[in-house]
Structures are given as structure tokens and as C-alpha cells.
Amino acid sequence: MTERNPTTADLVHVIEQERAAWHDLIAEVGEARMEEPGPMGEWTFKDLAAHLTGWRSRSLDRLEAEAGGEPEPAPPWPPELHDDDPINDWIREQNRHRPAGDVLADADATFDRLRRAVEALPEEAVWSPDHFPWTEGAAIGQAIVDRTFFGHFHEEHEPAVRAWLSSVNHPG
User: pLDDT band for position 1 (50/70/90)?
Assistant: First the structure.
């Protein structure tokens, strides 16, 4: 039996699964705890959502530019910022005083943006491991299918959020 190559519909399905899991996690956190420190040290869940949105938006800006035949855009953060920690601090500061609902809406919009970009890009761009130099040899389509596109959240942040939720839901 030959293995079928994933289709755009498969990518959209994965994106929607990730969105549903994100919504489930938001529901678990609950509105009352959105701005409580704890999920990541002094960071709140709102801070985490802004962080994920900031970095995903950078990738999405690049994909959207490619889909529109435009040059790769500059990052949204100041050009003197090159390392992750100062960039993370900048993203957090940009969102510190925004309502949690607005930050979560921006996070949700990244799923729509990813879906539209995948649907707009030529198949060659989606499946070629060398098409986007910034993916370091990974095809964006494969990164979605195997969920490495969402890996930063699942590997680095979700376990801490789940541990925090467990501690606040079952103290002691």
C-alpha cells in the first residue's frame, strides 16, 4: 500500500485540531485566571498567549508575504533586538496593558492566518524543505502535519501551564 501525501485539507484539519485544543486550554484556565502570575513564573496566561502570537505572527508574516508575492517583511520588534529573551520581553511589554480578550482574539486569529496562508501558497512552497530558508530545511506543510509548527507551545509551555492548572485546581 502506498502512503498518500497530505493535502491542503489535511493541513487545515490539523490547524483546526490545534485551534480546538487551544480553546479547550483557554476554557480550563478560565477568564478569572487569565492575568494571574504562575503558568510561567511571573508570566500570566495572557502573557503566554501574547508571546505565542508574537512569534507565530512573525512566521505568518513571512508566509503571507510569500503567498502575496511580496518580499519577506522585517520583524515587528525593534531592529536592535536579536536574541529571544529581549524579544520576548518586548512582546510582553507591548501587550501588558491590553485586555485579555483582545490578546486571546489575536492568538485565535493566528489559526485563521495560517489556514489562509496554507491555502494561498503553491504546493511547491508548502512541501519543499528548502523553500523558506527560515524553516531550516523543514517544509512548512510537514511542520504543520507533524505539529512541529506548534511544537514550541506543546514542548516548552503547555507542560508548565498544565502543572500550574493542576496546582491551582488541586492544591496541597
Answer: very low
- Check: CB of residue 39 under 8 Å from CB of residue 89: no
How far apart, in whole angstroms, are the C-alpha atoms of residue 8 and residue 119?
Answer: 7
Q: What are phi and psi of 38, to 5 degrees?
A: 145, -40
Distance CA 104, CA 149 (A): 19
Closest to 28 in 3D by CA, of 48, 45, 13, 41: 45
The three cell numbers of residue 19 are 485551534
Q: What is the pLDDT of residue 38?
A: 85
Domain definitions of the chain by residue range: 38-169
Q: Give the single-character DSSP code of 154.
A: I
